[in-house]
Design brief:
The chain is of the alpha/beta class. It has helices spanning 18-33, 57-70, 98-117, 134-147, 163-171, 187-190, 196-202, 223-226, 235-247, 275-282, 303-311, 328-333, 340-353, 372-385, 412-437; strands spanning 47-53, 75-77, 86-91, 129-133, 153-155, 177-179, 205-209, 211-212, 231-232, 252-256, 264-266, 272-274, 290-294, 318-320, 358-365, 389-394, 441-449, 455-459, 465-469, 478-486, 491-495. The chain has 3 domains: 7-179, Methylthiotransferase, N-terminal domain (Rossmann fold, 3-Layer(aba) Sandwich), CATH 3.40.50; 193-316, Transcription Regulator spoIIAA, CATH 3.30.750.210; 441-495, Nucleic acid-binding proteins (OB fold (Dihydrolipoamide Acetyltransferase, E2P)). Helix 14 packs parallel to helix 15.
Length: 497
């Protein structure tokens, strides 16, 4: 695993701003006046679990697997924290003030617990197990325990397979449990398979993590420190999980990884298998009609993977390929390990192999040292490539990263102005892409009921939501749909004759 530099954790004993300190101090002072409640274990066979998920698709997958890990202990999912015997906040550390959002949520939970226990004798007061999971937990675990006494358990994204063990420690009297190690054992080997009931409830499209961690060390990113070094699951374990998903009615799987196209697994004979080899193997599963993967790095888009988009029908004609900036100077400062020109070359090869492929990307504006010319280069790249959709952000400093200490930090007003310009361009491109879909007939996977009676929501090959008047029995089917119109937020179609 990648080592974590000491400076990454130095900020844990520093306040973010005056207001945040005031809130935290108030909580601590209040906790000194009142006896801290221990978590209540109801002793029933069935217990209630609520997990709130922040951030990326991998966190969504992790949340599902946490639920699977706790199912043998009798935990069933509920829709709100006030119903739960255990509450988990599965956190993301990518954006600015990620930790402060969690402290705000914990403040609301403290109010919830106090309200439920109001006017009750001390021996009748109850409290759910409250746990913080994910990347904020990994980065700030012990600081969370210090600032938020209501928290019972903190564990990182590599430790959630040990949830039953951690719960056992609490039940046996341990006051606080913190597990933010990078364990040597494979957590995926230790997790129970999802029950068929749970898988069906999650829908006909599913996420499947095949790779974790990142060795790229972009200067703005915390992922190598919170998720560790790159690790790839074995092809056998992935195929087994995919088979179980398809057996429960899943028709589409999105393969997940922080750097998914760096996948380097092994088959049963110990032979190396890359992402294109894995996708070819998955293509042999009967009933698995669609395969996607995210997030990719331009340097790992090899020709075999590009060619697969031309030859494998189940590989969807849609790719999320972040670039972050169109300026070579900024790309170098970001340590992206590619240039503007090499990125565009990958796009050209993809479109040569699959002319109808749609692209999405990530963009950061206001990175330290970004000039007007650098920003203009990003706008020019967007015009040259064209995207069906994209994610764009103002640069925010992440403590412990190299970029946080760089000179020439960009004023927030400049960042805001640039982001507005960039999003105007990206939104126009997205609308043009969607408008060009009108009049076409596309194969649509019907996923769920819409808000209106008799309405279903499906997904196009290009990840667009499509609204269709159709009976509920069609959920899980892939049918040709004629795209009739584009509304403000979605496309509307009808089943083709």
């Amino acid at each position: 695993m990648a080592s974590i530099p000491k400076h990454f954790f130095d900020h844990q004993n520093k306040s973010a701003n005056g207001a945040d300190v005031a809130v935290a101090t108030k909580v601590v002072q209040k906790s000194n006046k009142k006896k801290l409640l221990r978590p209540t274990f109801n002793g029933k066979n069935t217990k209630k679990l609520f997990i709130k998920t922040y951030g990326c698709q991998m966190n969504v997958y992790d949340t599902q697997r946490m639920s699977d890990a706790l199912a043998p202990e009798g935990y069933e999912n509920v829709d709100s924290a006030d119903q739960a015997d255990m509450v988990i906040l599965n956190t993301c550390h990518i954006r600015e003030k990620a930790a402060e959002k969690i402290y705000s949520e914990l403040g609301r939970m403290r109010v919830m617990v106090d309200k439920k226990n109001k006017n009750l004798p001390e021996d009748q007061k109850t409290k759910p197990v409250i746990a913080i999971a994910g990347c904020v937990a990994q980065a700030e675990g012990r600081e969370i325990m210090r600032r938020a006494p209501i928290v019972d358990m903190v564990f990182g994204p590599q430790s959630y397979h040990k949830l039953p063990e951690m719960l056992g420690k609490l039940q046996n009297g341990q006051r606080k449990v913190v597990d933010t190690d990078f364990p040597t054992e494979d957590k995926f080997d230790s997790l129970p398979a999802a029950t068929k009931t749970n898988t069906i409830a999650r829908g006909v499209s599913a996420f499947l993590t095949i790779q974790e961690g990142c060795d790229k060390f972009c200067t703005f990113c915390v992922v190598p420190y919170t998720r560790g070094a790159e690790y790839s699951r074995s092809i056998a374990h992935i195929l087994n999980e995919a088979q179980n998903l398809v057996g429960a009615g899943v028709r589409e799987i999105t393969l997940l990884g922080q750097n998914v196209n760096a996948y380097h697994g092994q088959d049963d004979a110990g032979n190396a298998v890359n992402l294109s080899g894995l996708m070819a193997a998955l293509d042999g599963i009967e009933g698995l009609d669609r395969i996607r993967y995210t997030t990719s790095h331009p340097n790992d888009m090899d020709q075999m993977l590009i060619d697969l988009h031309a030859t494998q029908k189940s590989a969807m004609p849609y790719l999320h390929l972040p670039v972050q900036s169109g300026s070579n100077a900024i790309l170098e400062a970001m340590n992206r390990k590619h240039t503007r020109e090499s990125y565009i070359k990958v796009i050209e090869r993809l479109r040569q192999a699959r002319p109808d492929i749609a692209l999405s990307g990530d963009f950061i504006v206001g990175f330290p040292g970004e000039t007007d010319d650098d920003f203009a280069a990003t706008m020019d790249l967007i015009e040259q490539v064209t995207y069906s959709q994209a994610y764009s952000f103002k640069y925010s400093t992440r403590p412990g990263t190299s970029a946080a200490t760089m000179q020439n930090q960009v004023d927030d007003d400049v960042k805001t102005k640039r982001l507005a310009q960039l999003q105007d361009l990206l939104n126009r491109q997205q609308r043009e892409f969607n408008q060009n879909t009108v009049g076409r007939t596309l194969d649509i996977l019907f996923e769920r009921k819409g808000r209106d009676a008799g309405q279903l929501i499906g997904k196009s090959p290009y990840l667009q939501p499509i609204y269709v008047d159709a009976p509920e029995e069609l959920i899980g089917q892939i049918l040709p749909v004629y795209i009739e119109s584009l509304g403000n937020f979605a496309l509307k179609g009808k089943i083709a004759d």
